[in-house]
User: Fold these one by one.
Assistant:
Number 1:
Amino acid sequence: MAYVVPRPNLTWKEKIYLPSIVAGMMITFKHLKRMLKGETKVVMQYPEEKWDAQMPEHYRGAPTLVTDEHGRERCVACQLCEFICPPRAITIKPEEIPSGDKFAKVEKRPKVFEIDMIRCIYCGLCEEVCPEQAIFLRKDYAITGITRAEMVHDKAKLYELGGVFTGLVNKWNPKK
Amino acid sequence: MDFLTSADFWFLSLTSLAKTIFLIFLVVLPMVSYTVYAERRVSALIQDRVGPNRTGFPTSLIPGISKDFSPFLGGLGQPVADAMKFLLKEDFVPGHVNKLYFWLAPCLAMMPAIVTLAAIPFGSSFLGVKMVVADINVGLLFMFAISSVSVYGIVLAGWSSNSKYPFLGGIRSTSQMISYELCMGLSAVPVLLVCGSTGLSAIVNYQVREGWLLAPFTNGGLSFREIALWVPIIIAFITFTISMFAETNRLPFDLPESETELVAGYHTEYSSMKFALFFLGEYTAMIAGSALIVVLFLGGWHLPFIPDGAGQGGLAFLHAIPSWIWGLVNITAFFAKVAVLLLVFIWVRWTLPRFRYDQLMKLGWLYLFEIALVNIFLTAGILAFTK
Ligand code: SF4
Ligand code: SF4
């Protein structure tokens, strides 16, 4: 059904338009004046001022790998994250854990685990899909480098960023 | 041949050359870059942002100086960095364009704007030399004629780009310029009637004698005639300024390049220095326009109580100071007025929304044109009755 929008009846002052221009200019001038006097403070001067303190709990920063309280790398190289990753940022090459190893019963661990941070879109799907709670998005956001190679986080870097994470997955722990 | 060897000829050519170099390279081009900077800074402040405040001058590269030079609000090196960027960027010419006109358009967009500056009297006189590059007695007509050429740059750019958005921008620009040129010319006529000349120097001299047109009390008193003339002059000033906004494609009339509808309008396909030339042309036209407003309505280089470059007029005790200082003061006063107008241009741009296209045409043809026309008769009537 057609709907007719009623035209507003403008007063003489509104029709001439010049008073509203002046009024608008006064508003913008007020903003300019408040900025110059330093009364408005919206912008953060980034490298000097940082947002870290106000960062929300759910912030999704760089994906990282974590170890558990026994120093075992929690990733079992199931490669689920590699397959779910939308931009295919993750590359995993699994290897078998040799039988003499302390964690031999886990059987599998990543030999190579690389996340290409140029590709990563910080979607968090890897964290969501991981059955071992081994990969987490931390709050690091300033991921920079001057070469492409530098932007690929290898396993060592990922563990360094991730650190230790305890709890939830206890199945690999020795029986009490 | 006598003429070529005469001292007059050489004096004229050399002073003209010096004036041109001073005006274009030492004043207008730096003014353009710093207008761009001011535009970015003011727009940011109006929108509660900060704007470019980092780029200083890397004086720490000079041995012996440990600090970078970044005075005032900071970011004063930004125009230099911008220019470097434009110079160093890849100059990309798309394959589907008409090469000849594609190359010609940026030059055509910039040259008229610079040429119009020739007729502007930007100071009284300095060491006996008149501060205007070409002191012609049809100055105003010359400015209108040349500045209407700049539309060809935009039209050619739009047409030769061979793609739809630039084309639309070019078409819009043509119809807009045609509509507003008329109104601009007509709204300047009252000034000509009052001053009795189309020479810009003559108009300024009239205002030095009788007070600025927009502020006739600057010569000390107000006669009945001046008060009566004030009305049409204020109307002329408003219509002239509005048409000037439309002429220079500034918001609220920037339809040829309205980003939200036409990507970037007529210069969508341009990159690097060719794009910069359009930019330069636009801002130079803005400066020329402001200069024209200053000359027509705001008394040109004149400041009340200040003598001119020949040590004439003004307060008597100021004549003790050498007159070349007053010449410099006049030049500074002129460019200060222009700078204030430029700031108003910027301020308006970041306040008002863009007109719709039919509104723009309606405003031009149905209101401004009529007002300017009636205003001429009003001025003529007042002049006839208050003789
Ligand atoms: S956050 Fe998303 S894009 Fe980044 S590695 Fe994980 S799954 Fe891939
Ligand atoms: S991080 Fe998690 S999902 Fe990815 S391979 Fe390791 S265990 Fe599997």
Note: The longest helix of chain A spans residues 18-36.
Number 2:
Amino acid sequence: MSLEQFKDRNVSQNYTYIPVDKPPVKPLDKFKQVLKRTFKGELFVGLWVVFREMVKFDIHTVQYPKEKLPISPRYRAVHKLYRLLESGYERCIGCGLCEKICIANCIRMDTRYDENQRKEVTEYTINLGRCIFCGYCAEVCPELAIVHGPRYENASEQRAHFVLKDDMLTPLDFLKEGKQQEYPGFGDVSPNADERIKKTPLAY
Amino acid sequence: MTLTEFVIATIIKILVVLGLFSALAGFGTYLERKVLAFMQRRLGPMHVGPYGLLQVLADGIKLFTKEDIVPQNSVKPIFMIAPVIGAATAFIALAAVPLFPEFEIFGITIHPIIADINVGVLFVLGVMASGLFAPLLAGMASANKWGLLGAARTAIQLLSYEVVTGLSILAPLMLVGSLSLIDINNYQSGGFTDWIVWTQPVAFVLFLIAGFAETNRTPFDLLEHEAEIVSGYATEYSGMRWGMFFIGEYANMITIAFLASLIFLGGFNDWGFIPGGLAIVLKVSFLFFFFLWTRAAWPHVRPDQLMWLCWKVLMPVAVINVVVTGIVLMM
Ligand code: SF4
Ligand code: SF4
């Protein structure tokens, strides 16, 4: 299955309507229906259908731990904290909007001023036991710092394993290898964002 | 053959049949899952062993090591003995079934039948019918509503389908004039055209339908239909006791397949260039496959439809078949 199928929201084109006949009213029609159903040999049609499928061997099973279905870029799984691509600083400016908007009230953060009087985030945790993966935090974040990742397999010995800041933050070496992809999902920048930027009146 | 030799040979045969058919019953569950899966565009068991072949073993370990729960309010002795009845009758029925043609090994001629009794058909059918006591007693003893409903449905099945089995098999027996399965087999030794299914097609269909009911397989799996009565008579069972019901069910399926091939499909006579031993294996495999095939394809019937089908359709047809056979035989 390709990603295009997931992105295609116009599903109505794939519908097929199954014609359903009106039930017969007249006795003769009823009799005809009985005859038709009796001699059509529906039981053998059934046998043929399943046999055909067995011989065609068109298997739809996804052997899950070995194979995985592609997920949409808009999938909202366990969160990630991103870094700035060039400098490697954390993107989060500690504005606290995500903490404020979170409807499950599960984000907790601690901030302080660093030596340059910039806000620095010291602690950032999400209680995934309460998170409803609504995506508001990713949408509200002005810096695209908190985003949803594609990691949906959250089985672990400890709930806390997912949600500490270190687990969510992009590792520095990972960033240096250029592996931090810009987030294409929920709350991302639109593709033509650059064209749409207008100068604010202050610049005159 | 002296008595000692006879006893030793019989014991060896019993052990072989017991071992072979337990293994086949286990393998049958694997085949069933695979065939059903392929028919539903799935893969079935894949992870344990190559292509999931060792799944049976894993299931065996699971069943053996599970806790054996006996519910508090159940009638304990009956509850505990019911699965044994199920498995035992299934294997006892096999005692009078000739499985293969005679063959020689180390200069000794072997008859692959444990007891060649002259009323083989009656014995097999009788023992298989008494096998239905297993679900009946299990359901009634387990102090569970679903179990009780399962037992009630067993009673329906027991009362209805034994009649059809007996009547449907009567007509071929009139042709052959013997109740021994070996005689029936030898009657069809003339090749493909001698098969009783050509002279008694109606009886064949009736026998198959009744066989499905007797082994409670899908169109007639009322006794434990999950969607309606959780698991019917087996609701309260766990571990190996539950497993025994299923060994019994699969052994019964194989027995019915053997009976149908012996009585109607030419048994273990040579079939063209195919030697007899292989021929019967092919026939039994096909019938076994047919059991699985219908399970994938057909919906199951309601208890009242089951009774309707039995008493108002199948039984009259069977009686007419017997009468017509009798008239043709007299002329
Ligand atoms: S996804 Fe929703 S619930 Fe989860 S942390 Fe973000 S805002 Fe809170
Ligand atoms: S909204 Fe974004 S920038 Fe603001 S505190 Fe949350 S993660 Fe940091």
Note: Chain B has 13 helices and two strands.
Number 3:
Amino acid sequence: MKFLIFSDIEDSAKQVMSFLKGKGDFVLYTTEKGESLTKYGAQKIVLLTGKPEVKGISSLLSDEFSSGGYDLVMIASTVLGRDIASLFSGQKSIEVIPEIFEIKFNSGTVTTKRYGLGGKAVIEEESRSKVFTFLSGLSDDVPGDGSSPIETKNIPEGVVKILAIEQKKAKEVNLEKANIIIAVGRGLGKMEGIQQIEPLVKAVRGELAGSRPVCLDYHWLSEDRQVGYSGRTVKPKAYVALGISGQIQHIAGMRGSKVVVAVNKDKNAPIFQEADYGIVGDLYQIVPKIVSYL
Amino acid sequence: MPYDIVVLIKQIPDLELIKVNQETGEPITDGVPFKFENLSKNSVEAAVRIKEKNGGKITAVLFGNEKGTQVMKEAYAMGVDEGVLITGYSENNPVLTAKVLAQKIKQLHYDLVILGNQSADSMSGMVAGLVATELNLPLLSNAVSIEVADRIVKVSTATEKDVIKSEATMPAVISVTQETNEPRFPPVLQIIKAGKKNITTEQSTVKIENTSKIISKKAPKSERKRLIFEDVDKGAQEVAKVLKEAMK
Ligand SMILES: Cc1cc2nc3c(=O)[nH]c(=O)nc-3n(C[C@H](O)[C@H](O)[C@H](O)COP(=O)(O)OP(=O)(O)OC[C@H]3O[C@@H](n4cnc5c(N)ncnc54)[C@H](O)[C@@H]3O)c2cc1C
């Protein structure tokens, strides 16, 4: 089997290549320059240069798919990835199985799992589809020692004109590697509240993370600290949720944690259904208490 | 310069009210009321803001079932002028949805098509690109801000790493995100007025062959201990123990 992979973020590219190792040949198409991508056993890495216009990229992938003898296409579920997949799907009239977090290759068909009903259901399906978008966390990141050759290709221009690209702040953290994660939600109330959480983070040598509103809407934490369906998927030894209600999109990103601790002032908060240990009360009172017992 | 806008909106089951059948492990959607999908509200809001500044007409198209009239009325109250409800939606299938919507859009006059980037229930993120392909229009996706002037539309798209500013000439398809705007709550009077407005209802006739079949659809398993402490001191002691264990 031969796979065409597209990912515009390094982590997902590494995860999917780690996952596909031994299952077939694969070529990675990416807009990321990282030298470290060459260590995962790709037949080659095609670095896409020029402006990241989604139609341009999907047309390029579409041509490569037709001429390169590929069987299946794996596209990282990112902002650009989902659009590229949908345009590819439209151009080629191939149905996409979107947002998968598990995949098995049978002879002629593929079995996948994804969330439905906003995460209230896991849909397991069998299909003859050839194109998939995959969530972050598909597999652990396991580098090998190979060194894939790098080739460059220019993204053709499309009808959408890209005027400017501003880089966001560089990534601060690799949550996937943290042993203990202390995550805060809207219940924190204010950005300054983080200072009162830090002693706990330090004491357990953990990493700070947050729900989507905290990272994306209020910017109390940087975006790479967002856990959840549209953020990072994490599996730490212990996950501590402080002032997080436990909406399904958040749970989707931390479900794999070994132990879950929740602190919430509302005893009916859904997070307590997803917790091993819960404390009902004000996080500002409880956090120093936990620290004092450590 | 006035712009005519088609907004694509969606009804979804109220996800908070979905219970699980303890015997089969399957979520129960029968009898769960429908609501106006979150990003569809952002889409209507985006359209109404453009209309307020420039004039033009907003037509909302909803592919769903008969219960969609309630959602359409809310859309009217937010500022939509005309609504088309296409019934016959059964399972989430982005290819089918895009074909149904595109077929209708082709019969309407429009400068812009606006829809959500990833709906709160199925979250596929596929419909915008598929609609753009069906209509052969440029796709400006995941907009966090939208500006229009002289038949040119500019958007900012926040990806995981960058903010990309791009533009296209109308007609174009725009997908919006939760961050695009804060949807308005229409005043009561407007909701009452909206209740009397006509909604065009049609039955979908598009059929496609399914390439996938569902093996199971179950609530995700949660096997947590659920030891909940209301005694804060005891809870803190227990949690400290757990954290010490995890640090090893
Ligand atoms: C397509 C899509 C993708 C999404 N992706 C994500 C994602 O990746 N990650 C994510 O997190 N969300 C995501 N969301 C959003 C998600 O639906 C919720 O809106 C979000 O998780 C809620 O964040 P929260 O729990 O911090 O806030 P809230 O739901 O507002 O909860 C705050 C909680 O804090 C508690 N509280 C308040 N004060 C205190 C106090 N002093 N002490 C203790 N507890 C207190 C309250 O009781 C409440 O339970 C997504 C939504 C959509 C539609």
Note: Chain A is about 25% helix and 30% strand.
